[in-house]
Amino acid sequence: MPEDRLKVLYVTGFGRSGTTILDNILGQLDGVFAAGELHYIWDRSLEQNRLCACGEAFSDCPVWQRVMASLGADYEPDTARLVQLRESLNPRRSIWARLSGSSLAASPEVAEYAAAIERLYRSVADATDSRVVVDSSKSPALGHLLDVMPGIDPYVVHLVRDPRAVAFSWLKRKVYDPSGDEPMYMSQHPPARSAKLWLVWNLTAEVLWARRPGRYLRLRYEDFTDRPRETLEKVVRLILDEVPPLPFVGDFEVDLTRSHSMAGNPSRFETGTVTIRRDDTWRQQLPPSVQRLVKLLTWPLARRYGY
Prior knowledge:
The structure is a single chain. The chain is of the alpha/beta class. It is built from 14 helices and 9 strands. The chain has a 5-stranded parallel beta sheet, with helices on both faces. The chain has a two-stranded antiparallel sheet with strand order 5-6. A two-stranded antiparallel ribbon has the order 8-9. Strand 5 and strand 6 (184-185) form a beta hairpin. Helix 5 runs parallel beside helix 9, helix 8 (163-170) crosses helix 9 and helix 9 (191-209) runs parallel beside helix 13 (288-298). The protein is globular. The termini are far apart.
């Protein structure tokens, strides 16, 4: 790869699978900047001025203001247009491009959006003096844009979790952003919808990247929580030549300093000593009939992953 290509680690997989804690830990490493769900910067940050993980509103965060400054004094993105372009990307479009051998770049709209994201990646790296940018936007369709960015050297971590645990988590009402007069809550999904999205997103991720040795790594949430240090070392070897000291202060405890990730699960605000533990409350609290429904809807991919 040419020397000037920027490494981007894209974290994919359906939400509530442990992507936020992985993002938080990777952001502690020198030369690695965990940007969070970067594709949502147009609406949640630039339009709504939501909180950065550091606790400051986007417009008050010094790190993100350096990023914006590096984009140029005349940078005025058409956020409504960029949101529209982002929402036009979907797994069906990506799978068809992969299976037909066509290029996403053939679409002027896709090329336009990819250029905007690539420019943003570059500015993030420049403003934070980083060699690797971590984007945990998760959507495989958005991650597929990495293939049409000439200046990006892409790597993918695919996190999967038991679909029954995921379905249970999406039933919970979680605060996404506690700032403002009214807190903003994360969306909720009924179990059948969670199961469908889990199936589509994970299957799309495999179709797009699984046959790329040295570029793609699939991890199970359950293995990550059982053997966090070993799992983190695998991820780091994907993007760095050597594994630097990791922020572990115990077998399952990490020391997290303030980060600057955008969007994502509210656990992005956590600092200090954080324990990595598996959440299996779904086994007792998710009705058996719902567990059976989710298992039926996600088979046989769930079985392929060991669930």
